[in-house]
Design goal:
The chain has 496 residues and is an all-alpha fold. It folds into 3 domains: 184 residues, MFS general substrate transporter like domains (Growth Hormone, Chain: A), CATH 1.20.1250.20; 236 residues, Growth Hormone, Chain: A (Up-down Bundle); 47 residues. It contains 21 helices and no strands. GO terms for molecular function: transmembrane transporter activity.
Length: 496
């Protein structure tokens, strides 16, 4: 795979887009009360600023990735960044909550284009032996956005208002727009086809024995079996039916899950979404050029279990910040500002260690490293099970650091493992599936919390709960999250 003439510019584009897509959401969360007051909107309506964005990202990631694989990764990335920038500008001039929600939905579509292409563009810019390292840079920027969002977002909202968040975000994405337009166009290059659908799980044994990267072993096997002059060709079919079924399934499933506990219609919608999803899988399995190659999940153990591991990891860890922040404020009595400074420990560790973990995955088995990371996440969530009213703050910080270290060690190597199992022409869809696993995992994590809260507290909010009941909710939630992480460890190891 030849290296692009502008690898540093590619890293800049990916780092900026990875940072801004996470920063915007985490920063805007602190403006919810002000937005509710300014537009005279209820909590449910304002909540759609988050829900609408999340649904758009989840529903459009795979279609955007498919379009990018068929046409041009750079073009889809450029359109996504441009759309995101335009929405930042439009948000500043919003005159109603409905207008702002619509802008956030469109911005979510732009974010889906970014998520489905920025990792793919990054990997095409560097040789396979450096993939883990550069993936680490991207994830470090993602966690930097998550960690700086509450701090910088709170400052901007308090001193300049919520519009300042969109202004700062727009400036960053404008710089990203200029940078992405300077990237070279996609090229159809001569390369060796990888035997990614059926052999990578056998090659992993060689990875463990000889210290080779998965990409190097796939390439070596290809040398033995393929014509060295064979050219990688782009897929030709958009698979409109498959993409439509996917979009309907994800929207109904995620919306139904996110509204669990608010009436009988939510589980019905989730069930319909699941049923449509079954039709989607059946259609994809029978289609010659599917939007998502379902056969890969069955025939390639490394690819299928790596995506499943990602789903479990996000599902077990996303609600940590939500639960711990409420624990620190309600039980321990810290202010929201102090809580934010304490909570920054986890994403800061993620941002600092992700490049290191990614670089290690270029030298050692990414499957082993991500399994160790999942184990550390299990240890961290297990520590949270023992929280009580007298727990030392240092124990909380230690648990946050352990889960941050575990997630950093899991995420970069696991992403490297997933992308190692697909051909270059499928990078877009592979990236978008990972983004979908993240979105679904986040939703499942909060659904688990919602169900526990409903069973223990009824309609009361966590912020209004007594310390004793809150601790009970936290313990039950983290017992479940620890179990999910332990299951994830076994699934990660199963890839061998």
């Amino acid at each position: 795979m030849p290296q692009t003439p502008k690898p540093k510019l590619t890293i800049l584009v990916v780092v900026l887009t990875a940072f801004v897509t996470t920063f915007t959401g985490s920063a805007l969360n602190l403006s919810i009360p002000d937005l509710s007051q300014e537009f005279h909107a209820g909590a449910g309506m304002v909540g759609w600023l988050v829900t609408g964005y999340t649904l758009a990202v989840a529903a459009c990631s795979v279609p955007a990735g498919r379009v990018a694989d068929i046409t041009s990764l750079k073009s889809v990335l450029a359109i996504g960044v441009g759309l995101f920038t335009i929405c930042c500008i439009a948000a500043v001039f919003s005159i109603s909550i409905m207008m702002l929600i619509l802008i956030r939905v469109v911005q979510g579509i732009g974010a889906a284009m970014i998520f489905s292409t920025n990792t793919a563009v990054l990997l095409k810019a560097f040789p396979a032996e450096n993939h883990g390292r550069v993936i680490g840079y991207s994830l470090a920027a993602t966690y930097a956005g998550l960690s700086s969002g509450p701090v910088l977002g709170g400052f901007l909202n308090q001193h300049f208002g919520w519009k300042a968040i969109f202004i700062v975000t727009g400036v960053i994405t404008t710089a990203a727009c200029i940078a992405v337009l300077r990237l070279p166009g996609d090229k159809n290059v001569k390369n060796l086809k990888t035997d990614s659908c059926g052999e990578s799980h056998h090659l992993l044994t060689d990875t463990d024995l000889h210290g080779k990267t998965l990409q190097q072993l796939v390439r070596r096997k290809s040398n033995q079996q393929q014509d060295p002059e064979e050219t990688l060709t782009k897929p030709h079919s958009l698979d409109l039916t498959g993409n439509l079924l996917y979009l309907i399934s994800i929207v109904l499933l995620m919306y139904g899950l996110s509204e669990i506990g608010k009436g009988w219609i939510s589980p019905v919608l989730a069930g319909v979404g699941l049923a449509v999803g079954m039709f989607f899988l059946r259609h994809e399995y029978r289609t010659e050029e599917p939007a998502v190659d379902i056969r890969m999940f069955r025939e390639n153990i490394g690819y299928g279990f790596s995506n499943l591991s990602a789903l479990l990891n996000y599902g077990a860890t996303f609600a940590i910040s939500y639960l711990v922040s409420i624990y620190l404020q309600v039980v321990q009595g810290f202010s929201s500002q102090a809580t934010g400074l304490i909570m920054i420990a986890q994403p800061a560790i993620m941002a600092g260690l992700s490049p290191v973990a990614g670089k290690l995955s270029d030298r050692f088995s990414p499957f082993k490293l991500s399994s160790i990371g999942m184990g550390l996440c299990a240890l961290g969530t297990c520590l949270f099970v023992f929280l009580n009213q007298g727990t030392s703050l240092w124990i909380v910080i230690t648990a946050l650091i352990i889960t941050g270290f575990g997630f950093a060690l899991f995420s970069s190597p696991n992403t490297n493992a997933v992308m190692s199992c697909v051909e270059e022409t499928n990078y877009g869809v592979a990236s978008s599936i990972l983004a979908t696993m993240r979105s679904i995992g986040h939703t499942i994590s909060m659904v688990i919390v919602t169900i526990i809260v409903t069973c223990c507290m009824g309609d009361a909010s966590l912020a209004e709960a007594s310390p004793g009941i809150l601790i009970r909710v936290i313990r039950i939630a983290f017992i479940i999250f620890t179990g999910i992480c332990i299951a994830g460890v076994f699934i990660s190891l199963k890839r061998r």
